[in-house]
Specification:
Blueprint lengths: L3 H11 L13 H19 L7 H10 L9 H17 L1 H4 L3 E3 L5 E3 H7 L5
Antiparallel strand pairs: 1-2
């Protein structure tokens, strides 16, 4: 079992997580959470840090699903981030001008902006 002190030392050592994805698909709150906790989420997922709370154990379980977790806010955010990274690295999408907003639905930037006028 990990300890709180080990987890905090790890985060201090790593610093701010670089969010290198399309930021328009994430709220400011989500981006701040990823910057602050991204290395921690990754370390828990990869087993570099051992969980010491039930919430951390649940997070690890929830991000391992093949669909977005609905009950765990942090697991949902990390799942969404990882899924978005996969889409952006996929050569089929890299130069298509399309946004992967759902597994089977893809929209152009113009269509997305029309659906979400407040995100400009």
């Amino acid at each position: 079992m990990g300890t709180k002190e080990q987890h905090l030392a790890y985060l201090r050592e790593k610093g701010e997580f670089p969010v290198n994805i399309n930021r328009k698909l994430f709220s400011d709150k989500d981006l701040q959470t990823l910057k602050k906790h991204g290395f921690w989420f990754m370390a828990l997922e990869k087993g570099e840090l051992e969980p010491f709370t039930q919430a951390q154990i649940d997070f690890i379980r929830d991000i391992g699903q093949n669909h977005p977790p609905k009950e765990n806010e942090y697991a949902f955010l990390w799942w969404k981030y990882r899924y978005r990274c996969k889409i952006e690295k996929d050569p089929l999408f890299a130069n298509s001008g399309k946004l992967g907003l759902a597994i089977n639905d893809f929209y152009t930037w113009e269509e997305y902006r029309n659906m979400h006028p407040g995100d400009r």
